[in-house]
Amino acid sequence: MNIQDILWLSIKDLSEKKMRTALTVVMVVIGVAAIVALTSITAGVSHSISASLSTLGPTSIIVEAKAGVPLTSADTSTLSGLPNVTGVTPVVEGTANLYSGNQNVSVSIVGVSPSELGSIVGQNLSLYQGTVYQDTITPSVVIGHSVAFPTAVSSEQVINVGQTATLKLGGKGGRTVTVPIVGIFPSQTSFIVPINTGVFMSLSAAELLLQRTSFNYIIVTASNVSTVNSTANLISNIYGSSVDVITTSSILSTVASITGSLGLLFGAIAGVSLLVAAIGIMNVMLIAVYERTHEIGIMKSVGFKNRNVLMIFLFQALLIGIIGGVVGIGLGAGASYGLSAVLGHGSSTAAPTTSSSSSGASTRAGGASAFGGGGGGSSSAASSLSFSPVFPISTIVYALVIAVAVSVLAGIYPAWRASKMEPIDALRQL
Q1: Are residue 133 and residue 272 in the same domain, yes or no?
Q2: Domain count, the chain
Q3: How far apart are CA 2 and CA 291, in angstroms?
Q4: Contact 183, 130 (CB under 8 A)
Q5: What is the spatial distance between Cα 268 and Cα 261, in angstroms, rounded to a whole number?
Q6: Does 207 share its domain with 326?
Q7: Domain limits at 288?
Q8: Taking the alpha carbons of 340, 344, 345, 350 in that order, is the dihedral positive or negative?
Q9: Which residues contact residue 103 at a Cβ distance below 8 angstroms, ignoring those fewer than 6 apart?
Q10: Is the pLDDT reported for residue 422 higher than 80?
Q11: Cα–Cα distance, 146 to 338 (Å, whole number)
Q12: Residue 123: predicted pLDDT
């Protein structure tokens, strides 16, 4: 008996029981789809965060103020004088409502020197439209892409370069200032500042606008990768617990640890789905063996060997695994893109403005950057999680191999039971 005959007999039985075959395949599809969707989303989030952090570069160190302990110009001088430090970038953040035409949106004010703008939004600084603002005390601003294009679905630009916008700070009765818009950022994600929902201006203009004399954080650039840790340790020794000192490599390590744990958790969830699928396959195939007992007896009586019968049922399990694996991969890919779209559009948040204390210090609302705490002023978050699923070839191959392996393993016992039937006993079953 050749392989074509075995394959034909396997397909024949599956096609005759279409509903049962479809339900069995669905069991495998669910498990495989879960593996593909969950692992691709985890990989996508990890890749997005890593890409955002890469804008800072591997030699960057973030020195963030804690509540009640402001960072000032004296600190920038201190940090600039440290060995192996080649650059210091102070950053001021706050929040406001932006009014332009019919638009009224909550935005994050980001003050940074135009010459240092690339250090926080990407070394290859490029604008979607316009030019970078000047380093003057009179504010002119570059706005984020989501501010100019508030409706992602229609892609309608409602704010253009050359227009003016009114920024209102504080609650009812707060101050307002009118600023010219000189540039618009392209759509991009940053783990440090809310680029898409931010309004960027010179450091001196932001300090005057926000009535600030201190910085939220300072980005220190080490001379090379090998000196990052020693420089970070030196800063920690100087300031003690009054600041948070964070390196991009430490954030990446934390992200890798978290996503790795999530990957294991999601893998366990998908594994449970596949275990249920394996039990279902075994159950369905055992029923098929009992239903075909008389047929098995006829096959053996006309010369079919035990291995032939075994192969017929194993091929059925193999086909179920292949079909379920392929369909599950496609369904999982579609589900991952759907979830990324939902999470990407649904994760934007805006925290209310907090009032500064008499000393000018207050706690930043979480999310304006990746780091909690902060001092020296009020700020809020308008951040969004934007990522695309990542599909490594290894994940797709593993998902298909697992689907086939689970199906075949689940089919071994029913196939063995069928192959061991005695022809006379099988023929008696009508």
Answers
A1: no
A2: 2
A3: 24
A4: yes
A5: 11
A6: no
A7: 3-51+254-347+387-428
A8: positive
A9: 150, 158, 159
A10: no
A11: 21
A12: 59
Greatest CA span in the chain, whole angstroms? 99
* Residue 325 in domain: yes
Closest to 201 in 3D by CA, of 107, 70, 86: 107
Phi and psi dihedrals of 399, rounded to 5? -60, -45
The first and second tokens of residue 103, run together, are: 């638009």
Per-residue pLDDT tens for 248-299?
A: 777 777 777 777 777 788 778 777 878 888 888 888 788 877 777 767 777 7
Q: Is 60 exceeded by the pLDDT of residue 193?
A: yes
Strand 141-143 and strand 175-184: the pairing is: parallel
When the pLDDT of each residue in the chain is averaged and rounded to a whole number, the result is 78
Give the whole-angstrom CA distance, residue 143 versus residue 127.
10
Long-range contacts of 1-10 (CB under 8 A, 24+ apart): 1/304, 1/305, 1/308, 6/308, 6/311, 6/312, 6/315, 7/315, 9/312, 10/312, 10/313, 10/315, 10/316, 10/319
By DSSP bridging, strand 349-350 and strand 85-100 are unpaired
The pLDDT tens digits for 306-359 are: 787 888 888 888 888 899 899 999 998 888 888 777 765 444 333 333 333 333
What pLDDT, in 10s, does the model give residues 6-22? 777 778 777 777 888 88
